[in-house]
Every structure is written in C-alpha cells, then in structure tokens.
Amino acid sequence: MNYSETLDWMFGQLPMYQTQGASAYKEDLDNTILLANHLQNPEKEIMTIHVAGTNGKGSTSHFLASILQEAGYKTGLYTSPHLKDFLERIKINGQDISEDFVVDFIESHKSFFEENQLSFFEMTVGLAFDYFREEKVDIAIIEVGLGGRLDSTNIIAPLLSVITNIGLDHVQFLGNTLEKIASEKAGIIKPKTPVVIGEYTSETKPVFENKAKKTQSEIFFASDLIEKTYPSVLVGDYQTHNKKTVLQAIRVLQSQNQFEISEENIKNGFWNVVKNTNLQGRWQQLGTHPKIICDTAHNKHGLEIVMKQLSREEFDTLHIVLGVLNDKDLDDVLPLFPKNANYYFCKPNIFRGLDASILHQKASEFELNGKAFNSVSEAYEAANHNASKNDFIYVGGSTFVVAEIL
Question: Which of 150, 316, 328, 390 is the most buried (most CB within 10 A)?
C-alpha cells in the first residue's frame, strides 16, 4: 500500500473516536499493553512528559516542545487530532513523521492489528512510541487523546505529568461532574512522579490532592504561581493560563537536573512556538481586511474565553462561520455566542458532523440568525463575500471546521 491507501485503511477499517464517537472508546488498556509488548515496549526506552486536560493540552504540549527544542534537545511531540494531515500528530523538532515510516509500520504489523482488532488510536500511539525510539529522541511530549486513566497513552512512566484544567466535555465517557472528570484525568498521575495542575476549582482540587497523596507524588498548582511568564506569538486569552502551566512544568523539570534549560530558552520557546512546532488553529489570523480569526475552541470552558476575547474586537459587522459535532450540548454552548452577528451554519465533513439545518434551527432559539450552507467552504466563501474591509470574520465551533478552512 502507498501512503494514501494506508491512511484509507487506518481511517476506514478501524474504529476511531473522531469519526465514530462512543463506539471507538475502549474501557481498558489491554490492547495498548498487548501492542506495546508486541513492539518490545518502545515507551520504556524514551523519556516523556504526559499532558492531559479538558482544554489547552495541545497548546501546552507545543509550548513544552518548543522550549525543549530551544534548549537543544531532540524533542518528540505526539498530539491529536490533526488539522490537515495525519502526519501532524507525530513530530520531532517540529518536523512531521515521514509517509514512508507510517507505511512501513502499518505494513509490518498489519496482520497483528487485524488479528487483535486494534483501534485507530491504539495503532497511532504504538506508531508514535516506535518512531520516537527509532529516532532516539531526548524527550517526547505525549498528549492524552481522551480522558487520562484509560487513554492509550497512559502506559508511559513520565518524568512529569501535567493536567491543564477540567471542564464538562465528553461527559458520555468521563462522567457528568467535575469531580468524576478530574478523577479520570488524575489517572495519569504516576507513583512518586511530580504533577502540575494548570487550573483547579473547589471541586477538582481535592481530587488531585488525594490522588497525589496516594501515589506519593509532589503536586504543583500553576495558577498559584506568582512568577511572570514571557510573551508569545500566540495571543489567545486562554494562553495566559497555558503559559503559567508550562512555566511551572519547566521549573519542575529544571529541579530534576536532567535537562539544562535557560531563561533564554524559555523566552524563545514561548515566542517561537509556531515556528518551532507549526501549531495552528489557536486564535490564528487568516486575513486582515476583513480581519479573519479561526480558533479550535469547541466546549463551554474554551468558548467562554474565546467569546470574551471576541467581544473586545472592533469591527463594523461580525460574521461567524459555525459548525459543530452531533454530540455537542447546544444548550450549553450556543448561549455563549453573540446575537449581533451574521451566522453561516455548516456541517464539518466527517461522520459525526451535525447537519447545518439542525444547527440553524437550534441557533434561532437563541436569537442567532443566519443561513445554513452545504459545506464549510461554502459558508466561509459566503462570509468573505458579504464582509467589508472593516468587518470581522470568526471561524470555529469545532476543530474540524477550522481544519477544513486551513
């Protein structure tokens, strides 16, 4: 199989949360452990930092990778989902994994995958660990896919665990209270391994403290950090919290004396994060006249911050290209969007995308008025056509809407 055929096989034949939702979520790590043993446990041969959280784990992971790259270390980065191409999920020093490595890996282990009915995510985690071992990275930043305790990445023994924050998202898998979700995320806290908590609430803090006590893990609360962070090219309001989380994580890493990281490395890592890692979709500006911003925020916790930032922008007319997935609690997120905007409703081009007409109808109940379009591209083109140079276009609601625009 060539690369295109390999991807078709991976996406089409095996369960994958991105396209199938709940049916792709497995409630144990048996398959991942089986695969790791089959690959001769590559995860045991690389040093890692594990990053979980409802929001901000992608930005946090990219910041950490950028700083370590600035310090001269060969740094692996595993994140999900991808925006444009599968290869984005697995990087070393900002360079995507090669098509050839993906093809060879799948071809070499295809019969094993089929025999054991491994999921898309399990295969991809195995691929990342195998690649990082093969390339002899100095350290790898590993982002949790969903939850923590039962996530396929949770077979590593990291130098440090990071949990950015807790919000009500993926409640069908993780629980419908902050305490239950925090407990799932806290599953990445390992024995005698320090953990950094980015943000906490009165409900979540005791969960983290109790788990850290049981595992004898030193715990750090980044939001209590008084130290100032450095500026970044990423200007989304939510990056304020992410940067504090990252700085606290770096301080813990420095205290372990395994990596030499200077203040200049930290400063440059924050500023050069996009150049170093090719991070996209975080309050990313796509145009100037009109100003066009896209953002991957897709749940209440993330959208509250983004909509507040949007309210401070100056423009004549606001145009919003909006699409969501069919498991989104619209009663939770639609009230966050401004009523004084022209809406262009669309369906992300994946199985789980919510039909634009349904979104249009539901949005009208919250006085969000506009039109439904057949595709994300049609909606985006209409917004560009209708907008004048002093207007503002916002594109979001789902990672997959942003991916189609990029």
Answer: 328
Complete DSSP assignment for 265-304: HHHHHHHTHHHHH----SSEEEETTTEEEE----SHHHHH
Alpha-carbon 78 to chain mean position: 10
C-alpha angle 135-86-351 in degrees, rounded to nearest 5: 155
| DSSP-derived secondary structure for 171-224 | HHHH-SSHHHHHHHHGGG--TT--EEES---TTTHHHHHHHHHHHT--EEEGGG
Give strand pairing partners of 265: none
- Tokens describing residue 47: 């040093």
Token reading at 180: 């239950």
CA 155-76-199 angle, 5° bins: 70
Tell if the pTM clears 0.90, that is, is over it.
Answer: yes
The H-assigned helical ranges of 216-262 are 239-255
Q: Are 266 and 247 in contact (CB under 8 A)?
A: yes
Beta-bridged to residue 52, according to DSSP, are 163
Looking at residue 147, what is its pLDDT?
Answer: 82
Map 37-99 to HEC letters.
HHCCCHHHHCCEEEEECCCCHHHHHHHHHHHHHHCCCCEEEECCCCCCCHHHHEEECCEECCH
For residue range 57-102, list pLDDT tens digits in order: 999 999 999 999 999 999 999 999 899 899 999 999 999 999 999 9
Residues 177, 203 contacting (CB under 8 angstroms)? yes
Q: Amino acid letter at 127? A: L
In this predicted model, what pLDDT tens digit does every residue of 232-280 receive, in sequence order? 999 888 899 999 999 999 999 999 999 999 999 999 999 999 999 999 9
97-135 burial code (b ≥16 CB/10 A, e <16): bebebbbebbeebbeebeeeebbbbbbbbbbbbbbbbee
Which residue shows structure tokens 């001769």? 40
- 242 closest CA partner among 58, 50, 77, 48: 58
Question: How many Å separate Cα 138 from the centre of its chain?
Answer: 22
Helix (H) or strand (E) holding 343: strand 342-345
What separation in angstroms does the CA of 289 have from each of 33, 161, 241, 302? 52, 42, 30, 26
The separation between CA 48 and the C-alpha centre of its own chain, rounded to angstroms, equals 17
